[in-house]
Amino acid sequence: MLQVQKELDKLVKNDHGLPYVHGSASKTLPSIPGLCIEGVGPISLPITDKIPDAIKEAGQSAPTIIDRSIPNILQVGASHLEFSNPAWHSGLKKTVGW
Question: By C-alpha distance, which of 87, 80, 85, 31 is closest to 60?
Fold first, then answer.
């Protein structure tokens, strides 16, 4: 895991203009965000077998910046997502420093 983080840090430092996401455990975010996807419904954790297919149906084809040869990349727009757990909103503000 540490090696992956080092490689990602190198990419960011090289500033290729690519999107960057880094994940780790959070002490300020709840484990249940209350995620609901329009057209899918509430997403329970852990994710059940039927949820990925439902998300695929709700998703739209996404442009791929890194490798245009990768097929079937889907995205769900932010306007189709809702986080109903109020602790998620306050925890996110603490996490990003709002």
Answer: 80
Helix (H, G, I), strand (E, B) or coil at 66: coil
Cβ atoms of residues 22 and 5 within 8 Å: yes
Average pLDDT over residues 69-89: 83
Q: Are 85 and 32 in contact (CB under 8 A)?
A: yes
Residue 4 lies in a domain: no
Identify whether the C-beta of residue 18 lies closer than 8 Å to the C-beta of residue 65.
yes
48 in a structural domain: yes
Q: What is the pLDDT of residues 35-59, one digit of tens each?
A: 999 989 988 777 888 888 888 888 8
